[in-house]
Fold these 2 entries.
Entry 1:
Amino acid sequence: MRPSGFPWQFIRLFLHPDVNKNKKWLFALIIPAYWLLPDLIPLVPLDDLLFTLLALHIFTRSAQGDLQQGREKTRTAPGENVIDVEGEVVEEEEE
């Protein structure tokens, strides 16, 4: 049984090779920077947690879009061995 839920979905998307690497780097740099920079509300990490959850949500939605675009590209990739066939049903003639 595969683990499910929001944290596992984020981890799978973050490690998936089809997700844009720039998005991964941006996420990996913005969150720690936000936690380390001076807070809007000192000594209360509530704004940090809310920002992190919002960034996680935005990243997972965006990464899922990357995966869907990747699937569409693989379906119609040029040079792929695909045979396009049209057919019709023909009834057999009785003798």
Note: Residues 46-75 form the longest helix (30 residues).
Entry 2:
Amino acid sequence: MNALPLTALLLSSSILSAGTAPRPAPATQLVTIVVSDLASTQAQIKLNFYNEPDKFLKDGQMAIRLFVKPEGKNEITVPVELAPGEWAVALTQDLNNNNKLDKNFLGIPTEPFAFSNNVKPRLAAPSFQQCKFTVDGPGQVVTITSWNDF
């Protein structure tokens, strides 16, 4: 007779816990970023990945930040795990190794910078829409060959 209330208690607790189980995070996809025509084969490259348009190019708002040394090469290949969806990447190369993007008195960068889709802005920073690419499956390659240097 005591087995019935115990069974009901176990059943109800398992039903309640099933509703509160954490959901698995969306699977990521390996994306390969290939960057060529580097200004320096020694200076560090900073890659900032964004997946929200309203945070694009805002200080400290990137989703992922990677630092890569070219180690004497003029081209680098960077594998990165990204969640499916829209992404944009902004790159800078720190030629004087001071850990920042140097700018002139007008606020224009004086060190090389680049964006996904090889966007070359002239009078204003590019938008997320101009730079975005879609991660929707494995084996994707994003190639960046066009640097902006003033």
Note: Strands lie at 29-35, 45-50, 64-68, 76-82, 85-93, 113-115, 133-135, 140-144.
